[in-house]
Amino acid sequence: MAGTIAWFRDISREDVSSVGGKGANLGEMTGAGLPVPPGFVVTASAFLQFLESAGIRERLRELFESVDPDAAERLADVSREMCGLVEAASVPAELEREILAAHDQLDPRAGVAVRSSATSEDTASTSFAGMHETFTNVSWERLIARVKACWASAYGQRVLAYRRAQKMDEEPTLAVVVQKMVASARSGVMFTADPSSGDRSRIVVEAAFGLGEVVVGGQVEPDTYTLSKS
């Protein structure tokens, strides 16, 4: 998929290389008619455009190739330098306008969730769950800064070590989901098979008051419900 902005309604699992795992799944659910809060993805192409414009892409590639996951002190130094390069760089003016214009098509009074969506995320043999940044209730004024923070998280210590340990030698790329927030009174996670036993006749739900991030982030001990599919 070409372009820097992709709306959920226009994407599917065929677009993982451009919009990442989260973005592709949100596109699939939107296409299936499920009640997904509207949003868009700042694509991996936009991320690379940002790196090129800032003149830091080649240096980041060199630093990534130098990572040794077993050398903790060196890993910390490399990660710090890489994140610093991203954080110090400016987003191209045209790209910033495109992101903000897309945001304006959502409800400007509501905050948005800004979520990293790695293009190599959660494949059959790898999972980046919890390694990249996610922000909730982000205002218009903070949107660009939060997108950049997601981009920088592609070079966090855990991410770099995991990529090298898994022999994932391709250049890291990252898409970013921007999605309208909902004022959730209760949130949770549903497993269509029991995660502890693999029993497919059971559904397990873990839920808590407030936003779902308190459940998936382990910030609270959730209520757990076990249901029979039949």
Walk me through the structure.
The protein is an alpha+beta fold and 230 residues long. The chain contains 8 helices and 8 strands. It has helices spanning 16-31, 44-54, 57-65, 72-88, 93-104, 143-152, 157-165, 213-216, and strands at residues 5-7, 39-42, 112-118, 134-138, 174-180, 186-191, 202-209, 223-228. Helix 4 (72-88) packs antiparallel against helix 6 (143-152). The mean pLDDT is 89.
Question: Which helices and strands occur, and which strands form pairs?
Answer:
Elements: E1 5-7, H1 16-31, E2 39-42, H2 44-54, H3 57-65, H4 72-88, H5 93-104, E3 112-118, E4 134-138, H6 143-152, H7 157-165, E5 174-180, E6 186-191, E7 202-209, H8 213-216, E8 223-228
Antiparallel strand pairs: 1-2, 2-5, 3-4, 3-5, 6-7, 7-8
Instruction: Quote the distance from N terminus to C terminus.
Output: 41 Å
- Secondary-structure-derived class: alpha+beta
Which residues form runs of ≥5 with pLDDT under 50? Answer: none
Shape: globular
Strand content: 15-25%
Rounded Rg: 18 Å
Number of separate helices:
8
How many β-strand runs? Answer: 8
Largest sheet: 5 strands, antiparallel
**Spatial arrangement of strands, main beta sheet:** 1-2-5-3-4
Helix content: 25-40%
Sequence of secondary-structure elements: EHEHHHHEEHHEEEHE
Mean pLDDT: 89
